[in-house]
Design brief:
The strands form three sheets. This protein has a five-stranded antiparallel sheet, with helices on both faces. The chain has 381 residues and is α+β, with helices and mostly antiparallel strands. Helix content is 48%, strand content 22%. The chain folds into three domains: 116 residues, Beta-Lactamase; 80 residues, Signal transduction histidine kinase, dimerisation/phosphotransfer (DHp) domain (Helix Hairpins, Orthogonal Bundle), CATH 1.10.287; 153 residues, Heat Shock Protein 90 (2-Layer Sandwich), CATH 3.30.565.10. The chain binds adenosine-5'-triphosphate (ATP) and magnesium ion.
């Protein structure tokens, strides 16, 4: 039996500890007999036992049977502690509780052993939650790393795009600067025909610049999900005619033949005129660029039921099925056009498809290497 002072001391210490994790305890004699058990010690036993004190430890806690040597080693202070972890106790009311048993040397009030039974049920659940949260955290971290990688890739693409766009913007500017300087310095010596030719070049290049800037602004709107379509009734034939006319200079310079075959049907539909012009501009610019000198370019309009169709056909480089499958990806350019050093940023068709789809339309392509390409746009009337 513990003396009064010991009991007080123990109880005070245990109140602190059990506040953290519920604890029961017992004092054992050196020959492993229970000398004292805390009031709730019965709750850690596998079976109800009326009298605990005076019993052999292995009779009340079967888990300790056969462990006498280890416990004696603790008593002789050859090892500091002996622990049995996560011992399961099925509860009458259902469910399980888990206990950790720790045995340490005890020198007061007389030499023996202290057995502490710690209820780690809640602790175990917490640990499990912690493991789960750590797993979730790991997953989040992995996702974050992936997103980061993607952002870096996009960032690199953006830098690449900026340098290419700057390059694209500079070439029309160089032409404009060159021809204006020529007219300014040698104006009197330039014949009226030449003067008008130079002015056409300047005008064409200024329009090209304008459209490049529109492309960049459109891309920005598409990427931020802010693309706005302002619909007004537009005569599609008229729009095709005007846009084709804007290409007269480029077509002539490349010795192409550009033909428009416009339907007699009235094709007036509610569309965003400047955005649809951007679509046509991109398709025509591709047809001119990717067709070797002296090619045939045809723009056709027709009505198919409740659909207005625009076709842009060329007799140019054409594409393999593999190339066509990447055609509408942002920044995609075929190896073919890269190796031929034909200028471009791979923006055009991505924007074209976004604009056509924003109008509720579709775009499709038919192409074969060296046999030209046909781009077909369908718009609901
Ligand atoms: N008419 C065409 N004939 C052959 N290849 C084409 C044609 N149109 C597009 N392509 C291929 O598709 C790629 C993507 O075209 P897209 O218009 O998106 O970009 P780009 O012309 O390279 O540059 P950008 O239009 O931004 O100046 C081109 O680089 C080219 O490889
Ligand atoms: Mg293009």
């Amino acid at each position: 039996m513990l003396q009064k002072l010991d009991v007080d001391l123990w109880e005070q210490a245990m109140r602190v500890v059990t506040h953290l994790r519920p604890v029961e305890y017992a004092r054992l004699t050196p020959d492993l007999i229970v000398a004292f058990a805390s009031p709730g010690f019965a709750t850690v036993l596998p079976q109800p036992t009326a009298v605990i004190e005076g019993q052999a430890l292995s009779d009340v806690l079967w888990e300790f049977a056969g462990l006498e040597d280890a416990l004696t080693a603790v008593f002789q202070q050859e090892r500091p502690i002996f622990t049995l972890e996560r011992i399961n106790r099925t509860q009458a009311a259902g469910g399980s509780r888990y206990f950790d048993f720790h045995v340490t040397h005890l020198s007061v009030p007389e030499p023996g052993l202290l057995l502490v039974a710690e209820d780690v049920t809640a602790w175990g659940a917490l640990e499990q939650e912690l493991v789960q949260e750590r797993n979730e955290l790991d997953l989040l971290q992995r996702r974050l790393a992936q997103a980061n990688e993607q952002l870096q890739r996009l960032d690199q693409m953006k830098s690449l795009f900026l340098s290419m766009a700057a390059h694209d913007l500079r070439s029309p500017l160089t032409a404009v600067a060159g021809y204006t300087e020529l007219l300014q310095k040698n104006g009197e010596m330039v014949s009226p025909t030449k003067r008008s030719e130079f002015l056409t070049i300047i005008q064409t290049q200024v329009k090209r610049l304008n459209r490049l800037i529109d492309d960049i602004l459109n891309l920005d709107q598409i990427e931020r999900g802010l693309l706005q379509i302002e619909r007004l009734p537009v005569d599609l034939n008229q729009l095709v005619q005007n846009t084709a006319a804007d290409f007269a200079y480029l077509v002539a310079r490349n010795q192409h033949n550009l033909q428009t075959n416009l339907t007699e049907d009235a094709l007036v539909l509610p569309i965003d005129e400047s955005k649809m012009q951007q679509v046509l501009y991109n398709l025509l610019s591709n047809a001119v660029k990717y067709t070797p000198r002296g090619g045939e370019i045809q723009v056709t309009t027709r009505r198919e039921g409740e659909t207005a169709v625009i076709e842009v056909a060329d007799t140019g480089l054409g594409m393999t099925a593999e190339q066509v499958s990447h055609l509408f990806e942002l920044y995609y350019r075929s190896d073919e056009v890269r190796s031929r050093k034909i200028q471009g940023t791979g923006l055009g068709l991505f924007i074209v498809r976004s604009l056509v789809e924003a109008h509720g339309g579709t775009i499709s392509v038919q192409s074969e290497p060296d046999a030209g390409s046909v781009f077909t746009i369908s718009l609901p009337l």
